[in-house]
């Protein structure tokens, strides 16, 4: 059965929502951590703390990490595409652009993924419903965060252009990660994050000289939260969804992240939002419903039954 062409079930939507919750606070975590940590060190610490947690999970579940050099090379490339490159791009760009604008650029990921998978696979091709749903979702993200976030476009053009590479690397990572479906879920997550941490270690040491830093408790808490919640837990969920739902459906999470971040801000911090936020939420849910297809299919079937049951008009 084609992975992406089938509709996601309740379990997949539940896992996707959980992943959105895990990743929803990452832009806030980055902002707090960047007060005391430079970008490369921040990315390295996030990965280095998460890696042993995932390796421990592998062993706790009774599994073992593979010894195949070819498989570890695949983990390395996955880590480069899904962690080292995009994480670095986001924390670097967030030094000069707003979290809202970064969120909008991140929400382009399912668009990039849908296009890449359409061109490079036979089982995750674009459908009219999926295209409509993704575009509605992106429009919803812009309305949710507020059109004023787009007012920042052009103020840091180089950072914005560079950050556009992140959705592309995420798209190719989702495609590359399909090869790990036969493995237990925690194994590729642990392999990918371990390889990413090893990749970032020399970069952080040479560029940032982290032994000179004196970070505060808030920055450390932000790093630990991003490692435990937004990396270790999140990547277990990531590979769990990828295994059953496909790359295109998986990366719908980037559309879910902004509303979750907004709702968390309202619940935890008492933040208030205006009518544009409700419009954005509505567009996002309409987009997700279009992608899922069940609601539209039910409406179409009901309309068909009514037409069939209606008495024929007299000549």
Keywords:
single chain, 315 residues, mainly alpha, 15 helices, 74% helix, 0% strand, globular
In short:
The protein has 315 residues and is mainly alpha-helical. It contains 15 helices and no strands.
Structure description:
- The chain has 315 residues and is mostly helical.
- It has one domain.
- The protein has helices at residues 10-23, 26-33, 39-60, 69-93, 99-106, 109-120, 128-145, 157-163, 165-176, 186-208, 217-245, 247-250, 253-269, 275-292, 294-309.
- Helix 1 packs antiparallel against helix 11, helix 3 crosses helix 11 (217-245) and helix 4 (69-93) packs across helix 10.
- The longest helix is centred in the C-terminal third of the chain and has 29 residues, at 217-245.
Structural class call reads mainly alpha
SSE succession = HHHHHHHHHHHHHHH
- DSSP, total strands: 0
What is the 3D shape? globular
Measured between the Cα atoms of the first and last residue, the distance is: 48 Å
What value does the Rg take, in angstroms?
21 Å
User: DSSP strand (E) fraction?
Assistant: under 5%
Number of helices: 15
Q: What proportion of the residues is helical, as a percent range? A: over 70%
Q: What are the low-pLDDT stretches, counting only 5+ consecutive residues below 50?
A: 1-6
Largest sheet: none
Taken together, the total number of domains comes to 1
What is the arithmetic mean of pLDDT? 79
């Amino acid at each position: 059965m084609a992975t992406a062409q089938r509709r996601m079930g309740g379990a997949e939507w539940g896992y996707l929502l959980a992943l959105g919750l895990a990743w929803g606070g990452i832009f806030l975590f980055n902002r707090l951590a960047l007060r005391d940590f430079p970008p490369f060190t921040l990315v390295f610490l996030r990965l280095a703390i998460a890696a042993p947690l995932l390796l421990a999970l592998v062993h706790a579940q009774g599994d073992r990490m593979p010894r195949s050099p070819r498989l570890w090379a695949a983990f390395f490339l996955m880590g480069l595409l899904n962690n080292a490159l995009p994480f670095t791009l986001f924390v670097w760009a967030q030094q000069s652009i707003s979290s809202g604008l970064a969120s909008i650029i991140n929400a382009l990921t399912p668009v990039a993924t849908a296009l890449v998978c359409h061109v490079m696979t036979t089982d995750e091709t674009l459908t009219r419903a999926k295209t409509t749903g993704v575009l509605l979702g992106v429009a919803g993200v812009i309305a949710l965060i507020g059109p004023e976030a787009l007012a920042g476009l052009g103020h840091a053009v180089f950072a914005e252009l560079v950050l556009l590479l992140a959705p592309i690397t995420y798209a190719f990572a989702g495609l590359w990660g399909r090869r790990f479906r036969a493995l237990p879920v925690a194994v590729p997550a642990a392999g990918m994050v371990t390889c990413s941490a090893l990749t970032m270690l020399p970069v952080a040491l040479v560029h940032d000289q982290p032994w000179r830093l004196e970070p505060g408790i808030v920055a450390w808490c932000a790093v630990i939260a991003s490692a435990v919640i937004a990396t270790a837990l999140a990547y277990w969920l990531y590979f769990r969804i990828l295994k059953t739902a496909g790359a295109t459906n998986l990366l719908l999470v980037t559309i879910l992240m902004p509303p979750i971040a907004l709702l968390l801000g309202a619940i935890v911090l008492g933040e208030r939002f205006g009518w544009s936020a409700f419009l954005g939420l509505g567009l996002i849910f309409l987009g997700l419903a279009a992608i899922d297809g069940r609601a539209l299919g039910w409406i179409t079937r009901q309309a068909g039954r009514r037409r069939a049951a209606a008495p024929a008009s007299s000549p």
